[in-house]
Amino acid sequence: MSTQPTRYLTPQQYLEIERAAEFRSEYFNGVMYNMSGGSWRHDRITGDVFRLLGQQLRGRECSVVSSSFRLQVSPDGIYTYPDITVFCGPPKFADRHTDMITDATLIVEVLSTSTENYDRGFKFEQYRRLASLSEYLLISQDRVHIEHYARQADRSWLMRETSARDAVIVLDSIDCTLPVAEAYERVNFEAEG
Question: If DSSP codes are grouped into helix, strand and coil, which group holds residue 164?
Fold first, then answer.
């Protein structure tokens, strides 16, 4: 997320501007923030994880959507575009436009230098407000490393992390697995510097 705010807007004003805009922006507390561009690694990792989850979810009640789909955490909270969102059951749209959901079971963010602290801190704090959210994945694009946060029965969060290529992340909330090697399959850290 860019640190250059525009002007104070209501959520309705933000949505009106955003729906007509050429470039996407996130929204929090009256301010729109331009989103930064991606990278080669970010795109490859996101694409592979999206494909892996999509294949496992075929024919099931959960759906996976990409970062082109907006998530409304709450009417007065953050409006954002997670890299990958999985929701289960029929989509819960925020309004008649069907371009923004209000629930997520799993959110995946691929970390970049400019967004890592935001994704790990403030953004995750906001995501935890979603009663539907059960799991959150943070995937590094600079090295093999995945952090997996799972909501516990007492509403606390348990974090597990791995840097092992042969590890498999078990996503209980959607009954899927994520082999770490497959998430990084098309990333060559040595050749790409």
Answer: coil
Beta carbons of 82 and 108 less than 8 angstroms apart: yes
Contact by Cβ (8 Å): 133, 157: no
Q: What CATH code is carried by the domain that includes residue 94? A: 3.90.1570.10
The whole-number pLDDT of residue 182 equals 97
How long is the chain?
A: 193
Into how many domains does the chain fold? 1
Q: C-alpha distances in angstroms, 107 versus 17, 34, 99, 104?
A: 25, 20, 17, 7
Q: pLDDT tens digits, residue range 106-132?
A: 999 999 888 899 999 999 999 999 999
